[in-house]
Amino acid sequence: MREPTTTAAPGGLNTAPALRRCVGDPDQFAETHWGRRPLLRRDADFTDLLDLAGVDELLSERGLRTPFLRIARDGQIVPAARYTGGGGLGAEIADQVRDDLVLAQLATGATLVLQGLHRVWPPLRDFCLQLGAELGCAVQANAYLTPPAQTGFATHYDTHDVFVMQVAGHKHWRVHEPVHPDPLERQVWGGRADEVKATADGEPALHHVMSPGDLLYLPRGWLHAAAAQEQTSLHITLGLRRPTRYSLVEALLDLAAEHEPLRAGLPLGLDLTDPAQLAPHLADTVVALSEWVAKADPDDVARRLRGTAWPATRPAPVPPVAQLHAAETLNPRSAVARRPGLRCSVARDLERVHIELVDRTVSLPAGCGDAVALLLSGDPVTVADLPGLDEDADRLVLVRRLLREAILVPAN
């Protein structure tokens, strides 16, 4: 089997409980499987994350709207109008999931795809947030409910790695090696449908009937198809959107727009489609780009990458009413902590300390720098213990501001 062009081994593997629950030994997984080849594990239990009763609750009681539910039949997506409708009096929407129409679809062999469960189902929300922190990438959660003896989708590949967790019933998986290793997000399988079909007709690299508690890891690009057996099947798919070297290339190209020689215009009348005319200008451009890239500042590249990496994962929820009450009733004995999953960076100058968030920057007096550093360390901190500020009144002002900015939360 092929080796990856880059190794993305998560840090802190010895204390990675979510990853350990998925793969057993995180260090062995990072060395042998991560981005390289599939992993099959047995005898776990994922029903605390989602079970059949939870699926019923989502479909009938949570007021889901599209696109949180998709339905597929014979490999084709069913139009949403066939299973959605108006929300009733006082709900001016037209695309709310109707449980009776979903029942009719399910009864006639359709597969239900519950999407974005890391946004709407608390157990999966919390698990994905923890797993993403351990892996160093965004994690999304979908669930697939397939009636007996049905195949939801034909053989295909994903452009992100996945953990597949079998929750109920049994499903037969056929896995083939990639036809296009390490595909980027825009390199979807439909553009290689003939190669995918030809490979899928051959002997699989892995075939296995997944039972409740089984987990399958597939790196991006590995072909797969799955068919439910004699019972309704429910499995959770965690999509692992790990960064690639091309992510760095894209950031470098964005930054290249700031380099004047690369913004220079080309001569009048130049035909860019003529290789002979293009060649000298291409050579000059490659030289200018190479010289600029060789001097690229990691700080600038990291700042550019934050624009895509940080919004991909939402931090833990903040209850607005309770959060405001915590700010109003704050006292020196109150304990607070950084909001779980919050992505931010801190910079200081002579006059201010700046907390850079995904959508804004919070600036505070420079004297708050040591207190901010401690507050953002991740460990619970008592207000009275904050360093660098002489008065409890100043400490309270700082912490109230950061509670209202949803940077801190009350420590449990």
UniProtKB/TrEMBL annotation:
Domain JmjC stretches: 95-257
Family annotation (SUPFAM superfamilies): Clavaminate synthase-like
Keywords for the protein's UniProt record, in alphabetical order: Iron, Metal-binding
InterPro entries xrefs: JmjC_dom, NO66-like
GO terms of molecular function: histone H3K36 demethylase activity; histone H3K4 demethylase activity; metal ion binding
Record carries keyword Ribonucleoprotein: no
The protein's required cofactors: Fe(2+)
Name assigned to this protein: JmjC domain-containing protein
Species annotation: Allocatelliglobosispora scoriae
Lineage of origin: Bacteria, Bacillati, Actinomycetota, Actinomycetes, Micromonosporales
